[in-house]
Amino acid sequence: MNLKRVRLIEVSVSDLVALHNTPGVLRHMPLAGAVFDEARCRQWVQAKEAQWTTHGYGPWGLLIDGAFAGWGGFQCEQGDADFALVLSPAYWGYGRAIFQHFIRLAFDDMGLASITALLPPSRGHANGLRRLGFEPDGSVRIDGTVFCRYRLRAPG
Predict the structure, then answer these.
(1) Per-residue pLDDT for 85 more than 70?
(2) CB 152 within 8 A of CB 133
(3) Is 79 left (phi over 0), alpha (psi -120 to 50) or beta?
(4) Of 41, 62, 37, 59, which Cα lies nearest the Cα of 50?
(5) Close Cβ partners of 62 (under 8 Å, ≥ 6 residues apart)
């Protein structure tokens, strides 16, 4: 797998709109809303890019072997660097390798003490996160939606 990170402003709006309108993807994105068209996409990208200005980090567009696969990275959620990964169904099998890439980035390059991952109740269980070392860390409410929070601490 040849993974390349690009800023979201470099990703085609049509690729992002298509991803955010994929039923299997939307099922686990309770904050996505009913309509994700080009205008909403541009606002969304602008908000994600603001994370970089405000916090020094943010989400990336992800290319695998040159093709758009999804987006992921860290966003500040209630003071934590929260890991998000949204992949097109054709790339769901790449999640663990992409996660490992971002963990090295978080702990080795960025020097973070911990990261979080928020799961909506629709995800049911968090066995995958637990296998990766995440531990339950309460819950948070964002825009009226409750998420289960999991935390992964830096090694050592």
Answers:
(1) yes
(2) yes
(3) left
(4) 59
(5) 3, 4, 5, 6, 68, 69, 70, 71, 72, 87, 98
Is residue 154 helix, strand or coil? coil
- Residue 77 makes CB contacts below 8 A (sequence gap 6+) with 116, 118, 140, 142
Beta bridge partners of 6: 61
155 secondary structure, DSSP code? P
The residue among 124 and 46 whose pLDDT is bigger is 46
User: What is the length of the chain?
Assistant: 156
Interatomic CA distance for residues 139 and 77, integer angstroms? 12
Q: Are 72 and 105 in contact (CB under 8 A)?
A: no
What value does the mean pLDDT take over residues 32-53? 89
Helix axes 38-55, 13-20, angle to 10 degrees: 100
Q: Please state whether beta strands 114-119 and 145-153 pair in parallel, antiparallel, or not at all (unpaired).
A: antiparallel
End-to-end Cα separation, the chain, in angstroms: 29
